[in-house]
Amino acid sequence: MDDNHDVLRYLEKNRGVADTMKLCNRKVIITGGSQGLGKEIAKQCLIEGASVAICARNADLLREAYDDLIQFKKDNQLLIFRDADVSDKNEVDAFVEFCASKFNTVDVLINNAGIHGSKNQIDDIMFGLESWQNAISVNLFGTLNMCLAVVPFLKKSGRGKIINLSGGGATSPMPGMSAYAASKAAIVRFTETIALELKAYGIDVNAVAPGAMNTRLLTDVLENGKGKVTDEYYQKALAQKESGGTPLNLAAELCAYLASEDSNGITGKLISAVWDDWKNLHKHLKELDSDIYTLRRIVPEDRGVGL
Predict the structure, then answer these.
(1) Is residue 307 part of a domain?
(2) Which residues are catalytic?
(3) pTM score, two decimals?
(4) Has residue 170 been placed in a domain?
């Protein structure tokens, strides 16, 4: 759905047919929801019938996002927002308490907030060390802080979904952006680990690789990365800018799928919005009870090498 007319047609078609919506009556929290992918995820969740709470650090952008998103909300849904820095546990706790007071509970947490941080080669990182540490604080500790605040609600209800946005650097190196790469790889292993810890409580935890999207992160590379990231990566970013990148709605629809009952039992996975047949994953639960869609060490035998 590329424009408002498509959305309005969708809502009209499904008016009074709530059971066709994947997230009817679900209460969803989305971090980094003021722009880009986070805003698109919020839109998709509203279309699918959820009540939605978004947070971000910039209050003005949050208000603008709310004003844009309100058109997708039906009368029986809530759309709320509050500025919060996910790297600050006190702000996170206050935001989640605010959400719980409006929603009475929380069903789904989507950890989307993220930044690139330092763009430096290893021998120059000291010039951007604070920025390097900030990326870890937002991307990794921000995800942890949100989980710490929300998991008690999910455990109490005996069900729930946590969706963590991974991305570039999780499965391949990113020279010049080691903080971002390290944090996103950590997100995947964190996801796999807490998925096992929370499985007994009916809580599914997954990570999403959204693809190469034309968001503020791409703009950040183009405006601030030249001469810091590799030339190959910079040229790739330029080409992505020209091509339009991966559509935002693709990852947003995957997040809505993972937030829904359709995906019950799928947990501990890193799923690509672009490359994986995620719309049919629930048909393959037996096969997914393995290390498929996970990060694992490659040994010589996997490559036909005898060492």
Answers:
(1) no
(2) 180
(3) 0.89
(4) yes
Identify the CA nearest to 118 among candidates 174, 36, 44. Answer: 174
With CA atoms as reference, report the closest residue to 51 among 17, 31, 32, 23. Answer: 23
If we measure between CA atoms, which residue out of 277, 292, 51, 254 comes closest to residue 166?
A: 254
How far apart are the C-alpha atoms of 54 and 69, rounded to whole Å? 11
Whether residue 303 lies inside any domain: the answer is no
Contact predicate 208/263, CB 8 Å: no
Instruction: Work out whether the CA dihedral 145, 138, 62, 204 comes out positive or negative.
Output: negative
Measured distance CA(181)–CA(268) in Å, rounded: 19
Give the list of residues 6+ apart from residue 184 with CB closer than 8 angstroms, or none: 114, 139, 166, 167, 168, 169, 170
What digits encode the pLDDT tens for the residues 212-244? 766 766 677 777 777 777 777 777 777 777 777
Secondary structure element (H or E) that encloses residue 250, with its range: helix 248-259
Q: Is 27 helix (H, G, I), strand (E, B) or coil?
A: strand
Could you list the residue range(s) of the whole structural domain that residue 246 is in?
Answer: 23-294
Interval 159-185: pLDDT, tens? 999 999 998 779 889 888 899 999 999
Q: From CA 33, how far away is CA 38, in angstroms rounded?
A: 4
Q: For the domain that residue 58 is a member of, what is the CATH number?
A: 3.40.50.720
Residue 4 included in any domain? no
Domain count, the chain: 1
